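Notebook entry, structure prediction.
Reason for the run: the old model in the group folder had no record of what sequence produced it. Starting over properly, with the input documented here first.
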Amino acid sequence: MKDLEILDINWNQIMYLSPNGMQHLEKSFAKNVSINMLNNPLHCSCDSVIFLQWIPKHKNHFKYFDNYTCSNKGSDFEISKTNLLLKKDCASYMEVIVLSVIFIIAFIAVVGTSMINRFRWKLRYWYYVMKGAYGYNRVETDDHYQFDAFVSYADRDQHFPKDEMVDYLEKQRVFRLCIHHRELIAGCGIAETITNAIHNSRKVVCVLSEDFLKSEWCMYEFNIALTESKVSRQGQNMIIMLRLGRMDMKNIPTEIMYILKEDTYIEYPENEDDRDIFWEDFAGSLNL
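New structure, fully documented this time:
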């Protein structure tokens, strides 16, 4: 409408104009178009604050601008005075929104972190088990497990499982042991392989020593075994604690101490004459 001079939109139900509407009207201002918006129920609110800031900038194009009013909570205000009122109200309103959003995000973060920390072992366990990349040859035991026992031990104690346990339990009694120096596959993630090996073992033997308690991987293996017993085996006693040498009881974590108090643990004898009986008892524990 190139010849448009006056846009008369008075006595309508216009509360405020959208940014798109304001942009279109600005294009007509170059042609000195006048607008009459008198007697519209203009609304004074934080939703309309952009519109109320826009009108005074172009008041020369609005007929009877000095008579324009907007309503807020049942009261009418002059447009020129409204911006000062809304500046304070909307600033407080925005502060409340920002603080509320920050609080909600912080609350979700704290709760989420707490839940992840509480169930971290279960989350790790299910993550690796569900991946299902076990990577072993499927030689199963009589009760459908791949190994009779997964052996958890510190590197400094590796002579015990690699020599004595293999000799007495595998060679003489045909147990199938999962010993990570021998069984774990190169190229696979260590945590994933350990988790799946424990999941596929009927028992887990923890060769308990001072070095065991200092090893992060040993504690990982113990916690995964504890999670396996609670989650997949309905509380079945599948962890055998084999105490190797003397230990300071103060250094033992609460979870391990609980098992030592609740269940009978096996202690490797220093006297060689007692070791035949030890291996008989140990083999019997694996068969339970």
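Summary: DSSP finds eleven helices and nine strands in the chain.
The old model has been moved to the deprecated folder.
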